[in-house]
Specification:
Elements (H helix, E strand, L loop, with lengths): L3 H4 L13 H28 L13 H4 L4 H7 L1 E6 L3 E6 L5 H14 L2 E6 L2 H9 L13 E3 L2 H8 L8 H4 L5 H14 L2 E8 L4 E7 L2 E8 L4 H12 L10 E8 L4 E11 L2 E10 L7 H4 L3 H11 L4 E6 L6 H12 L6 E5 L10 E4 L8 H9 L5 E4 L5 H12 L3 E6 L7 H8 L3 H7 E13 L5 E3 L3 H12 L16 E3 L12 E12 L2 H8 L4 H10 L5 H10 L5 H8 L3 H7 L10 E3 L2 H10 L3 H9 L3 H14 L4 E6 L4 E7 L2 E8 L1 H14 L10 E10 L2 E11 L4 E8 L2 H4 L9 H11 L4 E6 L6 H12 L6 E5 L10 E4 L8 H11 L3 E4 L5 H12 L3 E6 L4 H10 L4 H7 E13 L4 E4 L3 H12 L15 E4 L10 E12 L2 H8 L5 H10 L5 H10 L5 H8 L1
Parallel strand pairs: 2-3, 4-8, 11-15, 11-16, 12-13, 12-14, 14-15, 20-24, 27-31, 27-32, 28-29, 28-30, 30-31
Antiparallel strand pairs: 1-2, 5-6, 5-10, 6-7, 8-9, 9-10, 16-19, 17-18, 21-22, 21-26, 22-23, 24-25, 25-26, 32-35, 33-34
Helix pairs in contact: 7-9, 9-10, 14-15, 15-17, 19-20, 21-22, 24-26, 25-26, 26-27, 31-32, 32-34, 33-37, 34-36, 36-37, 38-39
């Protein structure tokens, strides 16, 4: 589109004296041209269907004009000429310019106002641009928000304690909410702000000293405006709500600035936002402030002053690895030293250091960047993270050729770095001469000095502390007291610590250097435990020991040290102890309907007759009521050639209930579609939906699937009883010999726990029961599901959208930026999801998921079949759980039965395969049972279901088996049984002996 100037040709040439006759004539001619321009502009506006305005002499307010900065106004030929708090008017010489439309959308979203775009002439634009001269000069903030001292002071009295935020957050206006949230975070020294959409509101949580705390709940109706403001600050797209987005902005305080990294993630109740506050003063901390002990600092100082070599920090996400590297860089940063860093992202700007941002989308990876960096001839190189073999090999080569290389790696401890790099493919003869130091670290909270209280040790606690201290080598030069001093623990909380009992954090460290004996172990491929043991003998103080020493110094509590360290294998071996420590749409069933169907639920044929002979208005309610009474898992309504069958899946088995006419079926289908919010005239190959059934103050969530078939649309309704989401693992039928293995696996801070079995075997229920056990306010749990079956309080649940490109793999990558402790992945279906899940489990996250395989051993083979590396699988997998559901014998009509000789012989062989060391009591006389059929079980002989399980844990021997080529499922099961695993079929027979199920039922599902 041409501007007005382009449409009107100028007939004057050159400049003339305005006071001359020619000048006076030129003025008149200019006035005529202006009128002609305005006339043409008005005609063009009419032709384009947009409003026209002449701004010459128009009273443009400073408030309106300032909504678009002068530079943009000149460049894009656009001005804002009117703003009254509710309406915005923008004028442009080219209203169709995409940037004009984008600017309008941005301003309207920021001001929550309605807007309109007008066409103006170039003359009007020139007049409007002159008005900028009258505006006061404002400090320009690039991609940021200014929180002035008075803004902080405004909220100071209310946010001394983060718990007070809930009292005022819904009282302030929308524009102040974001400022209030940020100001409170700064005031209480929070590192992250988590704002999560839940069913009843928007929960604001602060991560204070590494632990999440609920702070406030925002009214749901305000969330859209608040998140729009946050998106504007972070420079991400406002109208994108179904895909993850990342952005940044800066908070400008009076004397300093704080960079903020923002992550936006779609969830089942709306978008979740996580903002990480990057305090620039943290990069100037010295090693003493970080918590490094004097002797360890001297060891590290010696290694980092070497002209070449490799220094690696290791630990989970959020353990302070990057901060430690920055501290090293600040120490090495002199005029004579050239330092280059490769980071993703660059979190802090370091003066005098060249920092380069990785951009993997454009092919600028750590490996490619490192090659380029080495051509710049640096003395010191920092690589943000070693993730793959290529980056590892280039880093090692650089460290061997005159460069000091600093980087991070995700392992549990310093001793685990060497086996991890060898597993990645690095040759030990390159690795051992290159390493200077390996730093294992965690961050622990410091007890508040104002409210801490004495912790009187129990006998067991005292013995544990003494044992930990006793194995510190004399070479460590640690002064261990003969009698333990007074120890402290967190108090009830006070104003100084924000009511948490803790204030600030400090690091606990272990520094492993490459002595000759450690190099020898590494060259011989020794496991991490042997390297750790040798390092301790050489004088290394472990993270656990460093934490306990800080407890003796009154810095922290034993509880905090144990919480952060977690359950590591080397701790078990060295210290012989485990450190433990809805829906609006739905049907409403009347009491009368429930009583009527309850009275006939013991006789399926009789109840089917009532359904068949009922009116079309009552028929669906009777079907739903009967399904509830007989505890059906699914309802199937299936059109046939001459009628429509109604079938229930009871305890996993389909049973005919009734048949209805085609006329009644049409009404049933229409009611179900309408209730689920599906247009009744829509017919597609597949339709999915949800609705609820309300009765007796209870509510059952139902998942609906409609599939077009040869005779019509088949309806399947899955009854998602909330009981499954509330079950304890013990209630599922998991016996101690399997439960102990599972509990140990899910108690770890990282790794992968897999449940496996066919569809309908209860895999997801097992995962939900594990989440219930793990769910507490100190842990952030996020799930990726398809679909979300049960809603869990305090758990952030998200729904994948494969059609929209939001896959399991993409969701896991997005979750990593939200920094959860635990991730549940609904199902691992493909190689990409498997790979990303393994990566997440290796980088400080506990990953729970399901995979389709016949057995726990088969799950491992399934991963290998997806192309996963055996070494990575062995390192990441903590437990593989195989399971099936078997029907329970009805306890009302249970009677003893005799097995035929062939079946009895098979049963005895199965029982004989159980590991004798487990001491599972098996009676000399084997008795088995079955149900005879009674009203209680509707004549079926079974009522309810119970799981049969097998759990294979990844001990050292099992890891070796998995990594072997051509290993079979039988090989894996043989080692598993030897190490204490009870197989599914064995578990089932044991349950049959106890009268819980029948031998026939066990063999039906597990043979």
């Amino acid at each position: 589109m041409q501007s007005i100037e382009d449409l009107i040709s100028s007939s004057s040439g050159g400049f003339v004296d305005e006071d001359s006759t020619e000048g006076i004539f030129a003025k008149k001619q200019k006035g005529m041209k202006i009128k002609e321009k305005e006339r043409v502009a008005e005609q063009m506006a009419a032709g384009l269907g947009v409003p026209y305005i002449n701004l010459f002499g128009f009273p443009i307010s400073a408030e309106a004009l300032s909504l678009i900065d002068e530079e943009t106004a000149i460049q894009e030929k656009i001005v804002c000429f009117f703003y009254d708090g509710e309406n915005i008017r923008i004028a442009a010489t080219n209203p169709a310019n995409p940037i004009v439309l984008e600017k309008m959308e941005e301003i309207c979203a920021e001001k929550y106002s309605k807007g309109a775009i007008y066409l103006i002439s170039d003359n009007s634009l020139t007049y409007a641009l002159k008005q900028y001269a009258s505006l006061p000069k404002i400090k320009k903030l690039i991609n940021g928000v200014e929180i002035k001292g008075e803004d902080i002071e405004k909220f100071e009295q209310q946010i001394n304690d983060y718990k007070n935020l809930d009292k005022i957050i819904n009282e302030v206006n929308i524009s102040d909410v974001v400022t209030l949230i940020l100001a409170a975070s700064i005031k209480i020294n929070s590192s992250d702000i988590h704002i999560e959409a839940e069913e009843k509101g928007i929960v604001v949580r602060y991560r204070i000293d590494g632990v999440l705390h609920d702070a406030a709940v925002i009214d749901k109706d305000k969330w859209k405006k608040i998140i729009s403001r946050m998106k504007l600050l972070a420079k991400v797209k406002i109208n994108i709500e179904n895909k993850p987005q990342d952005g940044r902005f800066t908070i400008f305080l009076n004397e300093k600035k704080i960079d903020v990294r923002a992550s936006f993630l779609p969830t089942s109740y709306g978008e979740s936002v996580v903002m990480r506050l990057l305090f620039s003063d943290s990069v100037t901390l010295g090693f003493e402030q970080l918590g490094l002990r004097a002797r360890e600092f001297e060891i590290l100082k010696k290694e980092m002053n070497k002209p070449n070599g490799l220094i690696l920090t290791t630990g989970p996400t959020g353990s302070g690895k990057t901060t430690s590297l920055y501290a090293i860089l600040n120490t090495l940063n002199t005029e004579n030293t050239k330092i280059i860093t490769l980071e993703n992202p660059i979190e802090y700007q370091l003066k005098g250091i060249n920092q380069s941002q990785i951009d993997e989308k454009k092919g600028y990876t750590f490996a490619n960047g490192l090659r380029s960096v080495l051509r710049q001839d640096p003395d010191v190189v920092m690589v943000g993270e070693i993730r793959d073999l290529e980056t590892a090999e280039i880093s090692i080569q650089a460290s061997l050729t005159g460069h000091l290389v600093l980087s991070t790696l995700h392992t549990n401890d310093a001793a685990g770095v060497i086996p991890r790099l060898i597993d990645m493919g690095v040759k030990s003869y390159f690795l051992t001469p290159s390493i200077n130091a390996l730093i294992g670290q965690r961050l622990i909270r410091k007890v508040c000095n104002n409210c801490k209280i004495e912790h009187v040790l129990t006998t067991e606690e005292r013995q544990l502390v003494q044992k930990i201290l006793a194995v510190i080598s004399p070479k460590a030069e640690v002064n261990i007291p003969n009698e333990l001093p007074k120890l402290f623990k967190a108090g009830a909380g006070c104003e100084k610590c924000g009511g948490t009992g803790y204030k600030g954090r400090v690091g606990i460290y272990e520094i492993l250097t490459m002595s000759d004996d450690v190099k020898e172990l590494a060259d011989n491929g020794a496991p991490a435990f042997k390297i750790l043991y040798q390092a301790i003998e050489n004088g290394m103080v472990t993270m656990l020991q460093d934490g306990v020493l800080k407890c003796l110094d009154g810095v922290t509590s034993l509880e905090e040290v144990y919480r952060v360290i977690g359950k590591f294998e080397y701790i078990d071996a060295l210290y012989d102890v485990v450190v433990s420590k809805t829906l609006g749409r739905g049907f409403v069933l009347s009491d009368e309907t429930l009583i009527k169907m309850g009275g006939v639920s013991s006789d399926i044929l009789k109840s089917g007759g009532i359904i068949k002979n009922s009116s079309s208005n009552d028929m669906l309610n009777y079907i739903l009521a009967l399904a509830i009474k007989v505890q059906a898992g699914d309802i199937h309504i299936e059109p046939m050639d001459n009628n429509v069958k109604v079938r229930f899946r009871i305890d996993g088995i389909l049973s005919d209930v009734s048949d209805v006419t085609n006329e009644n079926y049409i009404q049933i289908l229409s009611k179900i579609k309408s209730t689920a919010g599906i247009a009744t005239n829509i017919k597609q190959p597949t339709i999915d939906g949800r609705f609820s059934i309300a009765f007796n103050s209870k509510n059952i969530d139902c998942r609906l699937s409609i599939i077009s078939g040869a005779y019509g649309e088949t309806i399947v309704i899955r009854m998602l009883t909330s009981q499954a989401a509330e079950l304890k693992m013990e209630d599922l039928g998991i016996r101690p010999y399997s439960l102990e293995k599972i509990n140990k696996a899910i108690g770890k801070s990282k790794g992968m726990v897999i449940t496996t079995g066919p569809t309908g075997s209860g895999k997801t229920t097992t995962l939900y029961s594990a989440l219930n056990k793990l769910n507490n306010p100190d842990v952030k749990i996020m799930t990726i599901e398809d679909p979300i079956e049960y809603h869990l309080n305090g758990v952030l649940q998200t729904q994948i959208d494969s059609a929209g490109g939001y896959t399991f793999a993409m969701a896991i990558r997005s979750f990593m930026r939200q920094n959860p402790n635990i991730i549940m992945v609904g199902e691992i279906r493909d190689a990409e999801t498997a790979k990303v899940a393994i990566e997440a489990s290796l980088t400080g996250h506990l990953v729970l998921s399901t995979i389709h395989a016949n057995s726990a051993a088969g799950a491992i083979a399934r991963f290998v079949g997806l192309g996963m590396d055996r070494q990575s699988l062995a390192s990441s997998m903590e437990c593989s759980i195989g399971q099936r559901l078997v029907r329970r014998v009805c306890q009302k009509c249970k009677k003893e039965v005799e097995l035929d000789e062939i079946l009895l012989k098979e049963v005895k062989e199965i029982l004989a395969g159980i590991n004798k060391e487990l001491n599972i009591p098996i009676p000399a006389e084997l008795k088995f049972y079955k149900g005879d059929g009674c009203p209680e079980c509707s004549g079926i002989g079974y009522k309810g279901r119970v799981g049969i399980y097998e759990a294979i844990s990844m001990d050292t021997e099992m890891q070796k088996v998995i990594q072997a080529e051509n290993v079979t499922n039988a090989d894996i099961e043989e080692v598993a049984v030897k190490n204490g695993t009870v197989l599914m079929i064995q578990d089932g027979i044991l349950k049959a002996l106890d009268g819980e199920t029948t031998v026939e039922e066990v063999l039906r599902v597990a043979r």
